[in-house]
Amino acid sequence: MDVTLARHATLVVALDGVRFLVDPMLSEAGTNPPVEDTPRQRRNPLVDLPDVDLAHDAVLVTHRHPDHWDAWAEAVDADTPVFCNPAEADAFREDGLTDVRPVDERETFRGVTIHRTPARHGHGETAEAMAPVCGFVLDGDETCYLAGDTVWYDAVPAAIDAHDPDAVVVNAGAAQFRDGDPITMDAADVQRVVEHADAPVVADHMEAINHCLLDRDDLRAAVDDVVIPADGETVSL
């Protein structure tokens, strides 16, 4: 199982000979305005997309926020299978995609089972406003849990316990508005995942969008035994 980080949460997961493109955010640096009501007002994405192989057999989208689904047409053909949260399936069809496959509980693609998992994108009213969002588990000869944009809460350890993954990918960065708690995992949340999972933990979702305030060096200093790939890096698990 190989996980290639393109940038932010855009991944290519290669499992059992199948390549899944995850959350394609493919805009050129500075194309989009900053996320509003955040401490650091810089245009997004903050960095260029590295030259990586984005070839894929299917696409997984955890949610349609622009830092996870943007400029997709540069790499995704309209007839590509796109697996998504059922609540967002119609929006993908309105985008012109012709093979949208909402994952209610599980779907199978070329021998890999795709499970949809819960996620909580923040706390309290903020999490409600940021919904819907989900994660996925890819289950083949090996199993990869993609937690998605979520903080640590009871559904995360429950998913780890239920699926016993061989690798866990968490969206870190401690994304935050001016008021309230982080809406993605901070260092303490990542530490909890590392302690709970009997598997390598890979952290992404850093240094590419203006509201992500936790950078790689700070996470590396705070949490031992977490894999933190650079943009463009492939991790073999």
UniProtKB/TrEMBL annotation:
Keyword Hydrolase: yes
Residues passing through the membrane, by range: none
InterPro entries: Metallo-B-lactamas (IPR001279), RibonucZ/Hydroxyglut_hydro (IPR036866), UPF0173_UPF0282_UlaG_hydrolase (IPR050114)
Entry superkingdom: Archaea
Keywords: Hydrolase
Occurrences of domain Metallo-beta-lactamase (ranges): 6-205
Any one GO molecular-function label of the UniProt entry: hydrolase activity
PANTHER family reported in the protein's UniProt record: L-ASCORBATE-6-PHOSPHATE LACTONASE ULAG-RELATED, UPF0173 METAL-DEPENDENT HYDROLASE MJ1163-RELATED
Name listed for the protein in its UniProt record: L-ascorbate metabolism protein UlaG (Beta-lactamase superfamily)
Organism: Halarchaeum rubridurum
